[in-house]
Amino acid sequence: MKAFNIKNVKSVLITVAVVLVLNIASNFIFHRFDLTQDHRYTLSPTTLKILKDVKNPLSIKVYLQGELPAEFKRLQLESKQLLEEFQAYNSNIIIEFVDPLENKDESMENIKELYRKGLTPINITVDDKGKQSQSMVFPWAIAVYNNKEVNIPLLKNIMGANTTQKVIGSVQHLEYSISDGINKISKNKQKKVAIIKGNGELQERYIAKFLLQVRESYFIAPFTLDSVAKNPNGTLKLLQDYDLAVIAKPTEAFSDEEKLVLDQFIIHGGKTLWLVEQVNAEMDSLYNPSGATLAFPKDLNLNDMLFKYGVRINPDLIKDEQGSPIKLASGEQGSGTQYQDFIWKFAPQVYPTSKHPIVKNLGGIKFDFANAIDTLKNGIKKTVLLQSSPYSKKIGTPVPISLNMVSEKTSPADYLNKGNIPMAVLLEGSFHSMFQNRVLPFEEKSFQTEGKESKMIVISDGDIIKNQLDKQGQPVELGYDQRSGNLYDNKDFMMNCVNYLLDDTGLINIRSKDLDLPLLDKEKVYENYTYTQFITIGLPILILTLFGLGFTFLRKRKYSK
User: Fold this and answer.
1) What are the CA-CA distances from residue 422 to residues 371, 380, 501, 555 (Å)?
2) Could you tell me the CA-to-CA distances from 356 to 109, 329, 382, 457 in Å, in that order?
3) Residue-wise over 351-385: b if at least 16 C-beta within 10 A, else e?
4) Would the pLDDT of 269 be above 90?
5) Are 192 and 243 in contact (CB under 8 A)?
């Protein structure tokens, strides 16, 4: 008996010693184990770096709380687990889950306050074994740091997807959404973006949503090339203070002096985002009594410049069977007018096929009267980011365009070996000046013929960056099409382009992270409701009961002797 007690004391002492050693070691060694197959909770190096820079308390208030539909319960759980992972790496992260509808007396005031902050709810239909009910959900979080505040969307809009598919896509983007939000309020702005003006580019109200989004992460300012005529050297010097130049849908030709300024900006390492069209064609010009217009080429005097860099934008229109929906009046005019959905083939609805981080995991992107891009061999690396569908072709200009073309009948043979036309191309490498071996339009002492490593993106449609205006003339969300009610991924694509060009590639790589999120098949659950209840609820209880009975039986048997 005495030997038995000594043995027990030794076991207790060893256990206590092991626990003490583990506790002491845990103060010096930090590691978390992610046992999920897709490493869902393993934070990327970019996220860890962002968290490391958070030196003061950062509050994240999540509004996914309360009685939620099943799909949003999953989004809530995934958000909570991911935020806890953030908190484990930085104790300055403070998390709070809030139910804005918890107190009925205060719920309306809470909803108004959230609306004021731009946190719009979504109303969803909950289907429980055929019984339907409406539920309001706020899939948002607000992060506050050093008196700066940012809204974090937890639900990603995916055009044409049901609630379950949206939740899966949202979980895929959770780390990116939260990391991006924290990065915006914890990181000081450094890079500068110039919005080029002076050649009939889009007015600010048409790119307002793009400007607001860019302004959250970068310094941004309009930069006019009008001063080139009087002081080209000074204009070039001022432009070289910027990191990125955005040329959004110019309509007037560039002079050789203006081209030299842009050329030397590029050669000296400046990044450029070109949104250039070679055809005059606007959707608004079709809404007239005849419902027709003439699409004709326009000369921006940029062909030789882009050709030198490695691309050519052709004065062709892309006609794509995978077009965007449009509502047109049919039937008798007046009170008998009815509206019918058609496919407008001159507004391609592009789904990225490239695995490049800029476009990976993006949904549909809407173009309007886009042109074809040719890539040329010149030693510059070229990556086609977006291209038309296999069932598309080029239409030469000038050509009459009519709304009646929605009723045209086509067959796959019409598009044989004509599709997959490049519409957005990334160029990376050491660019050569288009003024190499040419007389300069003005004397520039810092002129160079070959530049340092740089990159640019050329998109053959300016409308991709353009937001529509509502009836009051206010800009609506970039990518939202009022004619069809669809929200496209134009904004995400444009921001990915800007981030990539400005070398903020870490966040883009988070966005392209692949996750496998298995969800229950509702139809199968409803078909086998009782069996499913037994498997998910009854079986675990039965196993625990059998284990308890077995343990009790063995314990009695052992100590009864």
Assistant:
1) 9, 16, 19, 74
2) 44, 40, 12, 13
3) ebebeebbbbbbbbbbbbbbbbbebeeeebebbbb
4) yes
5) yes
Q: Considering all CA atoms of the chain, what is the largest pairwise distance in Å, rounded to the nearest integer?
A: 107
* 488-524 pLDDT tens trace: 999 999 999 999 999 766 777 777 666 555 555 555 6
Q: How far is the C-alpha of 262 from the C-alpha of 272, rounded, in Å?
A: 9
Residue 372: φ, ψ to 5° = -85, 140
Average pLDDT of the chain, as a whole number: 87
One-letter amino acid of 2: K
In Å, how far are 188, 211, 218, 447, 495 from 215, measured between CA atoms?
12, 6, 5, 31, 11
Q: Residue 201 is which amino acid?
A: E
Q: Characterize the bridge pairing of strands 93-97 and 58-62.
A: parallel
Question: Exposed e or buried b for every residue in 314-339, given b needs 16+ CB within 10 A?
Answer: bbbbbbbbbbbebebeeeeeeeeeee
Q: Is 433 helix (H, G, I), strand (E, B) or coil?
A: coil
Give pLDDT tens digits for 326-351.
988 776 655 556 778 899 999 999 99
The candidate with the shortest Cα–Cα distance to 353, out of 320, 317, 383, is: 383
**Cα separation, 229 vs 260, whole angstroms:** 12
Q: Give the Cα separation of 177 and 510 in Å (integer).
A: 9
Q: What is the CA radius of gyration of the chain?
A: 30
pLDDT in tens, 53-107: 899 999 999 998 877 777 788 889 989 999 999 999 999 999 999 988 887 777 7
Exposure of 310 in the CB half-sphere (CA atoms within 13 A) = 21
DSSP state of 32: -
Beta strands in 111-262 (DSSP E): 122-128, 131-137, 140-145, 148-153, 192-197, 219-224, 244-248
Name which residue leads in pLDDT, 555 or 484: 484
Do the beta carbons of residue 47 and residue 175 sit within 8 Å? yes
